[in-house]
Hints:
Layout: H1 8-22, H2 26-33, H3 37-44, H4 52-62, H5 67-70, E1 78-80, E2 87-89, E3 96-98, E4 108-116, E5 121-124, E6 132-139, E7 141-146, E8 151-154, E9 158-162, E10 167-171, E11 176-184
Antiparallel strand pairs: 1-9, 2-3, 4-11, 5-10, 6-9, 6-11, 7-8, 7-10
Helix pairs in contact: 2-3, 2-4
Amino acid sequence: MDQRGAPLEVIAYSLRRERERIGLSLSELAKRAGIAKSTLSQLEAGAGNPSVETLWALGVALGVPFSRLVDPPKPKVQVIRAGEGPVVHSERADYTATLLASCPPYARRDIYLITAEPGSKRESDPHMPGVIEHVVIVSGRALVGLTDEPIEIATGDYVAYPGDLRHVFEALEPGTTACMVSEHV
């Protein structure tokens, strides 16, 4: 299983961007987050190995969600295979956090459990403008995404696609289940 960490260049860029946005010095942000200035300097230089706790503390000190520090820009259709994605490890427990999708400000999300069997596909007409659908396969395999270009995903895989375009969900194995989040922005 590929357990890559959150890209350090994304974290470095995000920390600098957010720190400069609110006009804090390295020293002041480090003090507010309760971390060493040298640690923050390393992180902004794209070095080090930040823990979940360090990034949460920096997020709180900057007044931004954790996801804003680790989430790289995304293409229109995004696929994260099982074992992929920006992973951040805890320093206090056997625990990792893998960010799949961050919630934009003022967004509304609906969460669905999908159960489907092979032999028929669910074709959906476009939803209201701005809808994004996120799907994680819990068991089985399915073709999911835009009607003209569905992507085969299996247990643990994630895909996001515009729900305001025609899209499809087609089970490829008996007992296929998925978690689907419909995000309305």
